[in-house]
Prior knowledge:
The protein is an alpha/beta fold.
Amino acid sequence: xxxxxxxxxxxxxxxxxxxxxxxxxxxxxxxxxxxxxxxxxxxxxxxxxxxxxxxxxxxxxxxxxxxxxxxxxxxxxxxxxxxxxxxxxxxxxxxxxxxxxxxxxxxxxxxxxxxxxxxxxxxxxxxxxxxxxxxxxxxxxxxxxxxxxxxxxxxxxxxxxxxxxxxxxxxxxxxxxxxxxxxxxxxxxxxxxxxxxxxxxxxxxxxxxxxxxxxxxxxxxxxxxxxxxxxxxxxxxxxxxxxxxxxxxxxxxxxxxxxxxxxxxxxxxxxxxxxxxxxxxxxxxxxxxxxxxxxxxxxxxxxxxxxxxxxxxxxxxxxxxxxxxxxxxxxxxxxxxxxxxxxxxxxxxxxxxxxxxxxxxxxxxxxxxxxxxxxxxxxxxxxxxxxxxxxxxxxxxxxxxxxxxxxxxxxxxxxxxxxx
Length: 420
């Protein structure tokens, strides 16, 4: 703990391109009292000059006297150890937030292993060696659930592709580290101010184009439940903080009793023979506290489509039976290019005709195969409410939330202003 304030010192690892900017702003807000005494953020990106999108508010957080950013190569054990060392005269870091991991599905398997498993393991080992009070791991939704009902933490969710396999395996690696005060937070589809990453940002961008063109946005998959559970990025930050306080107070042994779940292994064929010598035995039972974090909206493809298109003055529909049947079996390159043709050109037109023109935007109207493939995310959020005591601040997915996102992008001139 900080010797002066009684507040913990914290490190956020990774996630500068996903959720760590929002977490940093939650822990050390631009105005108001900070929740931590000192905050260090560590990632591979540069912030001066930026080599990833930062949004207009995060640089103001970096100017705070108790916030420090370090650009580092976290694949090196010596580097990981070094970034845990506090500045002279400062108490050790006792809260660790692990938001590392490869988020691009199209990367080679060894990149997924290195960027997701190797890095996280090095951080976890060092955190355990230093006996940190809380180690909270963020699990992004690189998995899918059954369409029937919502699913709790005891159920074995299907990893999506190679990326999902190694994000899942990483949980076993962390959970197996002796003495690590670990809590895992598994989230739905994240959205919110300055979140240019993920399905909601993509759908908003495409819907804006169809609203501009005064045409209906059509989904590739036929109507059905098609759950796409969402979570606001401010609740991601709040949930991570709540779990950090909970595990710090509870300790790993008691936390496993109260909230532990079997962290199941992937199919052996997917992880063996990959030149990774530190994976736990697939037959070994490994338990760790695990919490789902989604809002209360029970968002589906249909409700998301209606909410987003309504914001931009258009409607949501579905492609014909033949198109959806073909897509079900194989999304060809020509189909993907045909789908993208209109809205990519429309987005280009919108940003160039904007008043003022948008010269640099992190947003794209291009949808790749992973964007267009069907996946179902239906999670039950009761456990984090009941055990950790977390209360959602943004329980609904609605147009008011989305309008705030657009307004903030417009204010920083990364979203087009095409109003007459």
